[in-house]
């Protein structure tokens, strides 16, 4: 079968690999019908150590069950399923608290690194803990809802997690930092949760335009001190109750504590590309700023978010502005890295 | 009148200073009947730049109103009042949200630095924004409840803030880091809010003994990796839902993210003596650890906490193990710094 491999910075290849097969009784083998390239895939695309490669890529996918291990009980051959970006058993104490990304099952973890011989940007994939990980989709493989349903695997759930951990509620004033797919999903999520003001900080007009359609009430293209001043102007001088940080770079975090209101919360879902950052008296402590967020337990949100997609209330799949087959995946990385594409849909 | 001045590290003196007087129509002049030395007073005692001094000291006090400015409406001469460690108008948008430490009135702020010519470790004090700042006490000046009521000025409200911002609720499993007065108040507060398990990390047996009486179910004297391992043992391996950090030094924060449970919260009330600290994937992000806390709006908690003191349900004043007059204040600093005293009550 064919699959995507990353060899080092800027070096993505689609190659023949051994066919994925069932290895454990709780596995399922899934033929991938739709996958995508994630903004977080660009982090190794920039900085991967070639000695750690080649690495199988892709952690967002929809597919058809081809074969089930003997202990799988909730899914059968032919089911169309969506796989979140983390494998989880859905029954441990953390999963029961809706924190599937901290599942304690020995096979649980992120696709990237955690399941080294598998990836979503491929023709097929072995899914561990299938009963816990996968969710059945009540549509056909050729449904036109596919792009929106695919966002349930990561970006929509991640944006929604940001908003939930930020405590967005009716009347909230929110600033979203980042106009990538997750930032736009954070806008859509804040809107869905009733935010009154949603300021989107981003400088790509096509993306912020979509952000406005998703619910952003204001757009601030400036960054740094200038951007902070603009947000403060838009919020009566004190900043936003809730800041959703969907970038992961240190300047985005610095921008976040620049625009957050005293007593407010910064909710991060952009994977931090830093470890040390300011949290002392001068940044968070003085005004009781809270910090929240982490890898989204998207499995926990699928049941809640899917109905709005199925009935057409929301259309998160609009973040996909490009589609390709597997051969086009290396170009897809290049285009996302070069901001020519917002998010690339892959149909293997 | 006589007042306490800090000239530099280890250099505290009690001297004659100009009498405090009313300067603005919203001021009150208060004769101090009880004050104290705070653990946070030890930070400048260690590291103050003599060029910034001499500085008036003391931000916790009870006293009798001697004179009221013409615009003060809620308090009158002869009232016994408690002054929180922050001046606030109690009516701005932040005070109405119970975040008095972020009051936006131009005269609002901390005693230390914010009201440079006044301090609680003195015979008298000018209190700005008296209607907003002060709370009347329904007891006589010689009440035996005085030590406990004095904790409402800072340490009890600060420990309670830690617990509230940590979301302590019935059934919570809590770790408190620090066996100083605030740490012990955090124990008492967690108990009051219904915590099921309260692990106190501290190595002074007399203090942790009092902590047990306040509600600690377990005491861990070890620090660092060894202490973290002990807490994990006591919590089924995963750590505590809530960690209350009442120290302010970086190792205490590192200990905090070592003992917090995935999805849990670290609530800081020890004034951070650092600005940069780990908050990336390896510390907070990976398991959705939240960070909360800041300077406690103790004004917001006085009405809630005072009844339990008045009816004897709780006795937070037990943290005072030493009492002195003004002359004994320099020795009080020395004894607190040397851990001979837990907390010093000053009767000017």
TrEMBL record, chains A, B:
SUPFAM superfamilies: GroES-like, NAD(P)-binding Rossmann-fold domains. The keyword Phosphoprotein does not apply. Its cofactor is Zn(2+). Keywords: Metal-binding, Oxidoreductase, Zinc. GO terms for molecular function: oxidoreductase activity; zinc ion binding. It holds the Pfam family ADH_zinc_N. Belongs to the zinc-containing alcohol dehydrogenase family. This is Threonine dehydrogenase-like Zn-dependent dehydrogenase. The lineage of its organism: Bacteria, Bacillati, Actinomycetota, Actinomycetes, Micrococcales.
